[in-house]
Amino acid sequence: MEQLSAWFSAYGSYLLIPFIAAAAGWGTNWLAIKMTFYPLKPIGRFPLGWQGVVPSHIRKFAGGMIDTTIGRIGGLPAIVNAVDMDEVKTYFLESATPMIAEAVHGLMRERNRILWENLPAPTKKLVFQIVEMELNEGIDSLSEDIHDHFERLLDLRELVVRKCEENPDLLNRMVFACASKELSFLVYSGAFFGFGFGVVQALVWYFLPQWWVLPFFGFLVGTLTNWIAIQLIFTPVDPMKVGPFVFQGLFLKRQAEISREFSRVFTEDLLTAREVVHTLIHGPRNERTLAMLRTHVSDIMESKLIVQLVTQAAIGPEGYADLKDAALQTAIQYTEELSEDSAFNRIQAEAVQGMLNERLASQPPREFQDLVRPIFHEDEWILVAIGGALGALVGWAQLVLIFGERLVASGLNPN
Q1: CA 415 to CA 404: how far, in whole Å?
Q2: How far apart are CA 149 and CA 289, in angstroms?
Q3: Cα Rg of the chain (Å, integer)
Q4: Contact 170, 164 (CB under 8 A)
Q5: Which residue, 133, 235, 263, 386, could crosslink 356 as a Cys pair with Cβ 3.0–4.6 Å?
Q6: What is the pLDDT of residues 200-232, one digit of tens each?
Q7: For the range 282-285, what are the long-range contacts, defined as Cβ-Cβ under 8 Å and sequence gap of 24 or more?
Q8: How far apart are CA 208 and CA 410, in angstroms?
Q9: DSSP code at position 269
């Protein structure tokens, strides 16, 4: 027992080295992940300030996602073609038709209540019926017009960038949803590789007990565990067979699963019907949308002479012009209200989601990796350097706290 105690007294501290290196590898990789995504807002000041790599480059990453990932699979035209326009028209007409009488009645009462109220009921009913009929025809024409000119009306890149800038954590959530397993591997592999480096470190320290050995190996643990894990996530790009084994980057090996998850998050959190309608009506290109809507509303109101004569008789030529503007605003209001319907949003999301999933899953791995690879690549050297610095500090702490007395006794003072 005394011999065992003496052995532990002499060599037990060496056994601690691999475990300390494992903890350092885990800790530096964990910190690297946190510093990639957080904080969302800058804290501190240069050179000690920091903002997460992703939040500080939102426009670059979000825009790049549209330019590369979405652009390569067909871009906005592919998304528009995935939507069943007949289904959209049917939904809109079924929802809007019950509102027609209320809308026309309200508009006419607002413009000239006395004349409108004194019109015979059959005349009013005829107006309602004609407007309803023209609405059905007008929706066909409008939907075709929007479909053919959607790229002129909607800037998909700007929509996604704006949405992510308004909610800086949204892009983070998308990455977590797609690459959660790879991020966990990045953290926990630090402990595994750190332990392996720690074994080598303990052997070198035993045979070469120089003051610089522990800080140097701590630096290696902090830098290489992060770097090696990232390489394993994305390398090799294409499946590589070695004997009975097939090797491929962890992220690329899960291409089918990640495609499904990305498509779900993209259509449920970013490209919703609600967001598209809001951008069309209030976005940077809204004047084009409003001009198109104004043209079609005017066509609907003027296509039947009786509607035009009755309304002009009730409110006069100037009031009729104002009525067109009021009708446009009413149409916009109803469109925005309908786009808030959760069932409608879900149906459209499923249609686009299926298309995105299919095309992403069939991408070549070298293109597919660009979904998240730029996030790891951006400022990677900073994260690796920080990991190395922290690892060196851990190595220095081992030197002073565990082996300090021994070094002083042997004349190798670390100070």
Answers
A1: 10
A2: 10
A3: 33
A4: yes
A5: 263
A6: 988 888 888 888 888 898 888 888 887 888 888
A7: 283/154, 283/155, 283/158, 283/159, 284/155, 284/158, 285/152, 285/153, 285/154, 285/155
A8: 13
A9: I
From CA 186, how far away is CA 251, in angstroms rounded? Answer: 11
Name the phi and psi angles at 353, rounded to 5.
-60, -45
Q: Are 324 and 298 in contact (CB under 8 A)?
A: yes
- Entry field: residues in the chain: 415
- Centre a 10 Å sphere on the Cβ of residue 35 and count the other Cβ atoms it contains: 18
With 0-12 / 13-18 / 19 or more C-beta atoms within 10 angstroms meaning exposed / middle / buried, residue 207 is: exposed
- Dmax (CA) for the chain in angstroms is 114
Tally Cβ neighbours within 10 Å of residue 302. Answer: 14
Write out pLDDT tens, residues 267-317.
888 888 888 888 888 888 888 888 888 887 777 666 554 455 555 555 555
Q: What is the pTM of this model?
A: 0.78
If one counts every other C-beta atom within 10 angstroms of the C-beta of residue 317, the result is: 7
